[in-house]
Structure formats: C-alpha cells, structure tokens
Specification:
By secondary structure, the chain is of the alpha+beta class. The protein has one domain: Jelly Rolls (Sandwich). It has three helices and nine strands. It is globular and about 45 Å long. It starts with a strand and ends with a helix.
C-alpha cells in the first residue's frame, strides 16, 4: 500500500514506469485532487484521461510508461493498494462473477492490460480509507 499526499507549487509532468516484476493488480482511490494521465504506448486503454477526485480505479498495466500531468497547487491525496497476482489467485471463490479483465488475471499466463474506472468512492469505502489514513499507531 502507498499513501501519496502532494501539493506541487508549479505544474509538474513526470513519467511513471510500470515495470515491476511481477506487476501487481492495483486499486487506487483519489481522495482529493485530479491529474491527467497520458499512455501513448498502448491500445488496451484510452491514451489520455483524467483521474479525479473521489473516484476509484482498478488497473493492471505492466510494462508501460505513463506521463502524469499535475497542475500547480493541486492538493493530491491518493491511497493505492497493491495485490500480488499470485495472492489474488488464492481467493478462489466466485471468480466466474468477476469482470472479464479480472478473470483473465487468473486464467491467462500473460493477461491483457486494463484500466477500469470503478466509480465514486462510496461512504463505506471512504470510512475504511479514513481508518487507514488515521491509524493510531
């Protein structure tokens, strides 16, 4: 898991390499702030999109270099949860109910990339995120 809290005082463009081996399944929650993502290298995804406030995303994008554009004074707070694919496969019940991209992670040796906007952060998700952010330890 990573927690990113950033305020940049100038516009920022940076390249984010996605070349971890093995690459994990990532669930990302934008609690505050937005930024533009450009992924010109792939056909599996829109090559230009905005990741926005109070939205959640699920993605698997191995071997990719994305460009992120953050505007000055944007208050970003993002929680990302990384799940090793082999660990994900150990949760063996109900996979037939999962969306096709997630089933491919389980059933294929080289699953296709995907970036799935899950939707709004629900009140229940927000409560759990607040518990993570405000741990007493």
């Amino acid at each position: 898991m990573t927690i990113g809290k950033h305020i940049h005082h100038a516009d920022l463009n940076y390249v984010s390499p996605q070349d971890e081996v093995p690459y994990p399944l990532i669930s990302k929650f934008h609690i505050s702030g937005t930024y533009r993502t450009i992924s010109p290298e792939i056909k599996e995804n829109s090559d230009d999109y905005i990741e926005g406030i109070e939205k959640s995303y699920l993605f698997y994008l191995p071997n990719l270099h994305e460009i992120h554009q953050v505007l000055a004074e944007e208050d970003l707070l993002i929680v990302s949860i990384y799940i090793d694919i082999d660990v994900f496969k150990t949760f063996s019940q109900g996979f037939e109910l999962l969306p096709t991209p997630l089933q491919a992670l389980i059933n294929k040796s080289s699953p296709p990339r995907f970036h799935y906007p899950v939707g709004e952060i629900t009140p229940a998700m927000f409560r759990v995120l607040q518990q993570i952010l405000n741990l007493p330890f």
